[in-house]
Amino acid sequence: MDLRVIIEQMETGEQEKVLAVLQSFNKEMSQCFTFNREEGQERKRLGELVLSFLSRELQPSCLLACLETVRILTRDKQSLDPFISRSAMLTLAQYSGIAHLAAPSQDPLEESKVVVEKDGKEAAEDSSVRVKESSPPSENPDQEVIIEALKSICNILFHSQTAQVIAADLHFIDGVAERLKQCNHPTWNQEVRFFDLRLTFLLTALRLDVRAQLAQELHGIKLLGNQLEATLCLCWPEPLVTARVGYEGFPPEELPPLSRQQAELAMEILKILFNITFNTNRRKVDEEEAVEYRHLGALLRHCLMSRVDGEERTEEFHSHTVNLLGNLPLPCLDVLLLPKVENGSIEYMGVNMDAVNMLLDFMEKKLDRGHKLKETLLPSLSLLTESSRIHRETRKFLRSKVLPPLRDVKNKPEVGSALRNKLVRLMTHIDTDVKDYAAEFLFVLCKESVSRFIKYTGYGNAAGLLAARGLLRGGRDSGIYSEDEDSETEEYREAKPHINLITGVVEEEQPNPMEGMTDEQKEYEAMKLVNMFDRLSRTNLIQPMQLNSDGKMREMTTEDLNKLATNSLFQSQEPADPDSEDET
């Protein structure tokens, strides 16, 4: 429909004509997400006219049509000018029902650098909750109007930094939080709840000050934890142990899958919680905060053990859960091990390992898929590493799964389909982060013992991590671990003297290339090799390196090479291993 015709009809000010042209425009543009730049000025003019209409008393049908038009127009990033004024934002906030607490702030903080996923469509259009008591909602609110206004605000915030500043200054988060407290009220339908959460997610993703306000002033962890609890219909049969209402005592595998609506709400809640708990896992928390985080951890354990209708949806739900678990303070992760061992549970050392085993399976699934490993694998790998570092039972269980007693000494550590083989292959991955995280996980499972780490990965694969930590000479890093009993297999003991430490396997004996040479011939060959190294290093093709006494590498000079050649170059010296082979 020609925008100029719509503008002409809008300028008449007659509601009937306006309703007719807007309904026709909305129907035609309902699935349009790309716009003709040549009509940019007309769209801006249409936006101004629609906003002026929204300041009048309108019939319900005309009001809804105007807001639908605003939603469509706000998909166009280039035509947002009419909608990013303070008055326009406040008008939309009033129609969405979140403006009753709006008040200007003195000094809004600078915008966050957090990136929000862009899928080329409007941020809003994706499509239970018990919290502390608040004032009830007004009777029979027009929820279609509220939803359209919320969608428009989401689109505007998604595209405009100016609008983000205005939304923070008008304290939109206060109004949304107030309604989140009411969201279990039967008045509010699923869509209102969803878009309240979507707006909260955008505000906390895009504004550092709003994130801090929700987390601290509005007690966001408790507020959203209660939202999650109510969305999933949970109860607490024991402290820090959850169950689905009506399914108390049922094992996780017998619970019905969550509905699509439950999953959508829960994932929005998890994303918001991720924003407001970002960077908390490394800092110390006080006693009151620890109680909140442990309560949240128990809820996340239930999420991890739950299924959603559809495998792809379940994996997405678990991904958000794992991401948030990685933000929890490390000591609070013990809630994953709290439930009692029941029939069908995975038990290790008297502890319920269902959640840890689920995390391990999730990590291996992401590893097998091999797609965008940095984004998909590292959250679960990091979570398992830190859990193993701080919780003895978790480490021992994971070691039994990932690094069982070594029997295969004929194949290289990176060859094979076992989880150990897959992780060792990652230790030489092209992505430095992926390589480092995989090595760190295995190193922690080995209690940061160099000899044990080399035993399971081979010196060649282990060299990167050991060099970075100054451990190439052996020893143990500074981690504190319990003593374990020896678990070397008979096969490993027999093969141990013949294992090549570089490759980690038994290799056929090779003939000695210097057999039959005189000392003069050996010295000649040594100096020949030194000269070759020297020539390559002078042309910067290679840089010979040497271990310092602190276990770190340093560059070798020509003098060092000559000294090495004359000081028993070919005598094999095997220093005593300072590490015991006590293992889990």
TrEMBL record:
Q: Specify one Pfam family.
A: Ric8
Q: Where is the composition biased (Basic and acidic residues)?
A: 121-133
From the UniProt record, give one GO term of the biological process aspect.
G protein-coupled receptor signaling pathway
Q: Does the keyword Membrane apply?
A: no
InterPro entries registered for this protein in UniProt: ARM-type_fold, Chaperone_Ric-8_A/B, Gua_nucleotide_exch_fac_Ric8
Q: What are the entry keywords?
A: Chaperone, Cytoplasm, Guanine-nucleotide releasing factor
Sorted alphabetically, the Gene Ontology cellular component annotations on this record are:
cell cortex; plasma membrane
Quaternary structure annotation from Swiss-Prot or TrEMBL = Interacts with some GDP-bound G alpha proteins. Does not interact with G-alpha proteins when they are in complex with subunits beta and gamma.
Please explain the role this protein plays, according to its UniProt record: Chaperone that specifically binds and folds nascent G alpha proteins prior to G protein heterotrimer formation. Also acts as a guanine nucleotide exchange factor (GEF) for G alpha proteins by stimulating exchange of bound GDP for free GTP.
Put simply, this protein is called Synembryn
Question: Source species, please?
Answer: Gambusia affinis (Western mosquitofish)
